[in-house]
Amino acid sequence: MLTKRLIACFDIIGGRVTKAVQFQDNIDVAPADELAEKMYNADVDELIFYDVTASAEKRPIDIETVRRVASRVFIPFTVGGGIKTLDDMYMALKAGAEKVSIDSMAVRNPQIISEGAKAFGSQCVVLSTQVKRVGKSADFPSGYEVYIDGARLATGMDAVEWIKRGEDLGAGEICLNSIDCDGTLAGYDIQLMQLAEAVLSVPLIASGGAGKPEHLSDLFTQTDAGAAIISSMLYSPRMSRNYTVAEIKKYLTEHNIPIRPGGSHEN
Known about the structure:
Layout: E1 5-13, E2 16-21, E3 24-31, H1 32-41, E4 46-51, H2 63-70, E5 77-80, H3 86-94, E6 99-102, H4 104-108, H5 111-120, E7 125-133, E8 144-148, E9 153-158, H6 159-169, E10 173-178, H7 190-197, E11 204-207, H8 213-222, E12 227-229, H9 231-235, H10 245-254
Parallel strand pairs: 1-4, 1-12, 4-5, 5-6, 6-7, 7-10, 10-11, 11-12
Antiparallel strand pairs: 1-2, 2-3, 7-8, 8-9
Helix pairs in contact: 1-2, 8-10
């Protein structure tokens, strides 16, 4: 059985990690490179970095912050935000990222998925999608709609149909974030993840809502998601106390969830 991955996800503004609830009211946390090194030493399995205002501000990704983070971690590192062209992808990979995540631009130009997969390999291309529950209808058979530009703009696209199309175009992984659950600490949208996994054959990263180890156990026992984003649990100022990666892995191991062992990165 494949082990499940725990991923720290950073929402970056001005080179610093921030934390929001449902994409609003961002609170400053720490410099991105410093927190990345802390998470690496704590044995998190992977890191995702989103320059969350790049698309809305119509600018490239903050490549200098990508370089600083990449110089301090030695685990799989994905970057997204402001990725519009193959040149943008190349620059991010050259700066030290292992994978690039595309979101808003993929909706506007779906062919960038297949172009990126052809140029760099599907394993380098992650389709990130922000979705909101809207209720089932003829337009939204899954009951979820895709949003872009930092969850600011509704697209009129059904979420499950879109991620399946993204896979068909060549995305090697799908990161699916529930806007409704994001930052709430109330647990993942299990129904959304079950709908997604039913149509996907590539790995699914679940995002939005984790607040305690039980939420991860629920996700991994009720869905086939291969990875989970656990940002708030690790560093959100809104938590009464933050969990360590070791605590989370210990809990999951005790509940028979196949997880990568800890201890390999600690100083």
